[in-house]
Amino acid sequence: METQLDPMKDDLPLMANTSHMLVKHYILDLDVDFKSKVIEGIIVLFFETGSRYRKSSSTGKEGCQSQFDETCKMRASEPCHFPVTNVSACSSKTEYNDFAVCSKGEEDTSDKNGNRSNTEQASGIPSSKNCYDVENHGNKDFLLVLDCCDLSVLKVEEVDVAAVSGIEKFTKSAKLTDVSKDLENLRNQIVHELVTLPADRWKEQLYYFTCCSQAPGCGELPFTAGTWSLEIRKSGIQTPTDFPHAIRIWYKTKPEGRSVTWTMDQSGRPCVYTMGSPINNRALFPCQEPPIALSTWQASVRTAAGFVVLMSGENSAEPVQLREGIWSWYYYVTMPMPASTFTIAVGCWQEVKQPSFTASIQTNTEFSLPPSQADFRLVEEICGHVEYPCRFQNPAARLQAVIPYRVFAPWCLMERCEERLLQLIPQCLSAAYTTLGTHPFSRLDVLIVPSNFSSLGMASPHIIFLSQSVLPGGSHLCGTRLCHEIAHTWFGLAIGARDWTEEWLSEGFATFLEDIFWARAQQQLSHDEVKGQQELKALLRWRRLRDEVQNSEEELQVLRPKKESTGELSESGASIVKYGLKAEKMFMQVHYLKGYFLLRSLARIIGEASYLTSLRKFVHKFHGQLVLSQDFLCMLLEDTPEQKQSGLTVESIFQNWLDTSGIPKPLVEESETWKECQLVQQVSGEVTKWIQTNQRIRKSGKKKRKQDEVVFQKV
User: Fold this and answer.
1) Region (Disordered) spans which residues (predicted)?
2) Which amino acids are annotated catalytic?
3) What is the model's pTM?
């Protein structure tokens, strides 16, 4: 059912038909096996009807509570069980706490050997007509399409959420007319009520999500696994409204799957982690990858004793022993995020502890803001995102300059992390808070990942991966990289790009804010020293951008490659990430650098103080949402109407910076001014000395005599 893609275009297909059905919550229940290099288990997905079908439901709506009492109470004769250490957590009083939503610790009795063969198909993006299956059916059956790659899908079934004990409370408003479909529609109504619970009932919501995930199945669903997608149907179901809104999938990853990497850490012990693959997480679990599919998740991961499971989760998980040699780790997230931001790392990590005499000051630090910032924060109380337990509405969170943090590393790097990393994290977190305000996430783990990690860092919700390369030398490299990844908390995570081709909205902002954060983290620096550092970095970045532009394809240098079509989706919701699979693109920094220079130019034109005020306003207005370039630019220019009169418009910024290749004209003119910076001249002089000295040594081939030695300055 997939149409052919042109493999020469190197575009990444996003296959999921999110306009028809939209995933709202995932529950993963996984086992990690290092011997076979496979992650195996179950994922349960909870859906809402997509935007194109939400208003045109095919089912009538009249009362059905009495039928629920008769039909479902018999099927729910056994309550939902949770093997937890605190048995009272799942008593009849139903306490909704972290323990009540932990994973089941029993072996699943379902067939995990698979009972059908997957059918490999050509990769492609389904058009709207491909979302229905007419083969062997008189009528068109609706097809649910998920993003999936390099996975062995074993079984798919509908989940009988109506069989969960106590679920009756979610059926009070259900109204149905077609008696033959009452139970099917009732299940979907239960899921709808569950996924739309108010934010203040999030613990109850997680509890019932877990109960529903363990409910019995009520019929297998035919599926077909293609190169890029998993297609699921139910015979006779022709609309997304009637399609099951809770499905369970048995699957396992493949050792060669591209979403995770199996390797050894620096101490020679096995580990596995998500390394920021171009195909994101579709080779880790079946999902909806388009950014619009904002969802929450819970995950229980079982692994052998001695391993530590770190994950993008709001809680600092504590392991629970299930049986001899097997431990389970549980994490959850209540802020809806794209599935691509889900991150996991399993290894023999060691926690780097804060020395006891300083541990008391590492977290919950309150910070007094300047009056202008404090007043601004009190005014902006209404959030524009979908409802979730938002920290921007929590008075205590709004005053928390340093969130709780932990550091993990292989055993051999613990001492270096204690010396370098532990002292920098609170400084950088506080500097970020001073600049942008409320931390969107409640905690932070920092992990030094294995040496095969191809980047200096990667940020995900509640966790940052750092390369071991940032640890040697002084604090500058480690501090600036930490600031960059912390900046992604706001730009890239709390505020995401609606179209992934606009990477500059994440990387450009993080690169620009990296300098602001690091300057404030170094509290002893004077204004001139800060300016000197920033102009030196601007010159170095300019040279990197100039070299990259000279040695790369023009089409890869455009920050908004889809131009006026940016953000557009097909009728089904499927789309592509232009050049998302192009090999050269993985090593390019044009989105970092051109984005950084655009923001730097705007700050220079508007004035840094006014500019940072606008950034804080943008964060408060758009956190928890997806944006396009024009959302930021329009708001910025509305805050500075005088700039429109001088010719600075959204259209001119598109033309000069975002929609064209090469070096923007305004940047060429500005680059000449950086050479006049005193620090730049000083560094240039020292570099010249090193080059000349090295050339003399090479020519003479002899060790220099004492009187010929050159004195180098420490810069």
Assistant:
1) 105-127
2) 485
3) 0.85
